[in-house]
């Protein structure tokens, strides 16, 4: 519990800072949207470019782990999107909700947690999971959102509209540009790396402060419960991943345990950033992040005890 608290408490502190700044009017009504726009257009693209530009195939090619983690993540996403659509929600809202159910906070919680539990070797599965969440799940969500936003009735025109929108999106262009750079075999110069590091380091704190600002200015009564998304994220996703990691692929102990723990992480700020960026209702998403982060104190502790990590080499 102390290990998890040391990782999660700073998250609440950053959200609280944003909340207090908004309630005391130290930051104005547009601050949440403006800070979020900075994250979407500058900080997160820098992070995505840096990660994809400096990662080799040898580091990320672990097929069993990739399939086990991806399957749990994508199954939860598809299930929530289908459920929301059946309840009459539009594709944009359904996609953002689905993202909330599958988007694990691998960057801010997963990486330090795996490092604490497994040592330096734990960074590798955490990095792979981060790439899958941000570059695969995020990309699928963006495609569905853009499809939901376009109003063209002819298929050809609709496809062109979606491709044009995606072609301008910083969260699509940055990882593609990073992968293209990595394919050249050229490294990144020290000043460039330092520049990217400075921007990338601001991603999580700015996103969490933006979330706190949003919570400080909008109080919703009688709005939809976050519990279905939270239960899918904290229970459904790790359960599916556990079956695949331990029973189907029989991964090595560290890889199997890390796959389950990473799948059990609470919802990250990615869905909230998209909801704000596309000017969609972000109340449900913000509550999902808060409730799942708080609930993960219990679920992650239970999983660590259940997995008995004492025999896993750190």
From TrEMBL:
Its main location: membrane. It is a multi-pass membrane protein. The chain crosses the membrane at residues 6-23, 35-54, 60-83, 127-149, 170-189, 195-215, 227-249, 255-277, 289-307. The keyword Transmembrane applies. It is found in: Membrane. The keyword Transport applies. Keywords: Cell membrane, Membrane, Transmembrane, Transmembrane helix, Transport. PANTHER family: AUXIN EFFLUX CARRIER FAMILY PROTEIN, TRANSPORTER AUXIN EFFLUX CARRIER EC FAMILY. This is AEC family transporter. It comes from Pseudomonas fakonensis.
